């Protein structure tokens, strides 16, 4: 159905507009306040790079954007844009420096008290991820991360601690960031110290089982400790299209999508689906379950959250199976789509598609908690004498994606909110670069370590402020 160019979308009055970051990409202060080392502190080249024995000076995340010391300034800027919600994570190793201690680190707990208080001062609701690619390094080295069932108990102790501490301050929680990314990045996503090339499918899927049980346990604990809170899962979404109408390509897509739908199915339905049982049979994988696991998995989430950056294609033709340059979890480039500077294909309609697919499948509220464009930004002096960035390319990208969110709302999809990634420039997770910028706020820090760390409003800052103030009515079709 065609619409006029001045058509506006009906975003719900309580729609949660905001932005998202992760502690490990923004806070810095990796060795302050009693914090222990995390897996991020030994990954100077991002999720796709090798790890080091100890932190090295070329790891940009050790300082990040120094939000640890500048959070008041940053939250004030978020409030100026009109944020209703701010997604961040708690650095697990700030609370339990090694991960297996019996008692938490009070200085770390106090830092997040201060951060959440600052958010609430401006009426901003924190949306908090419990584990966002920052497993305590000791748990990776000593226990091989989630391969070891003991991780469930360590995670439960951590979750219980923060639920009790922040029960009056945080009403929205996520259990694991992009939990399905463990399939491609077992160290970063699952704290698994065994090199990926030596990790068996048996151990990988046993680790996934442990994470799923822990996630369900966190849901149960959250509902008990904070009855008025909502807790969801978080999935890396990458809708996949067949490269051709050949039925072989369609089946290839189905099988590929199963590997990612599996995580949502488990969080929403609490049972292993038939297609995964077949996969386990054919691969000789036997998931070891202990008494109570099946019952625990039935503690299902209140909503599904996900990241969306790109779509991809699949084909059964071995001659065409050439991976795209920037696609983190595989896939073949779509000949009909443009790509970003980092090779991520730009597909706004894919967001409407995935919203409909998730909602049709689960009939649960959805929350878009990551979406954005990484680009090289040029800091200039504007006509008013203020430093800024003319990032019309980012405005176009976000506008086009939010228009598709509006379309999904008209399709009848229940959408809770939208938090753009990252609302302020942070160190990239994929490449550990700062020149790959996503934010509405420019941070003066560069990949050679130089910069003042000063913050400057980009053109997109004022654009997003208008979008929020108009509740989406300022978007342009």
Brief synopsis:
The protein is of the alpha/beta class and 477 residues long. It has helices at 23-26, 67-81, 92-95, 106-121, 137-143, 150-165, 186-190, 201-225, 247-269, 274-283, 293-297, 348-362, 392-410, 459-469, and strands at residues 16-20, 85-89, 125-131, 172-176, 230-237, 240-242, 303-308, 312-314, 366-370, 380-381, 387-388, 415-421, 441-443, 455-457. It has an eight-stranded parallel beta barrel, surrounded by five helices. Strands 6-8 form a two-stranded parallel sheet. A two-stranded antiparallel sheet has the order 10-11.
**CATH superfamily label:** Glycosidases
List how many beta strands DSSP finds: 14
CATH class: Alpha Beta
Number of structurally distinct domains:
1
Low-confidence stretches: none
Strand order of the largest sheet: 1-2-3-4-5-7-9-12
Strand count, sense and barrel status of the largest sheet are:
8 strands, parallel, barrel
CATH architecture group name: Alpha-Beta Barrel
DSSP summary: helix tally: 14
What is the molecular shape?
globular
Q: Please trace the helix and strand order, writing H or E for each element.
A: EHHEHHEHHEHHEEHHHEEHEEEHEEEH
Gap from first CA to last CA: 13 Å
Q: How much of the sequence is in beta strands?
A: 5-15%
As a whole number of angstroms, the C-alpha radius of gyration is 21 Å
Structural class comes to: alpha/beta
The name of the CATH topology is TIM Barrel
- Compute the average pLDDT: 95
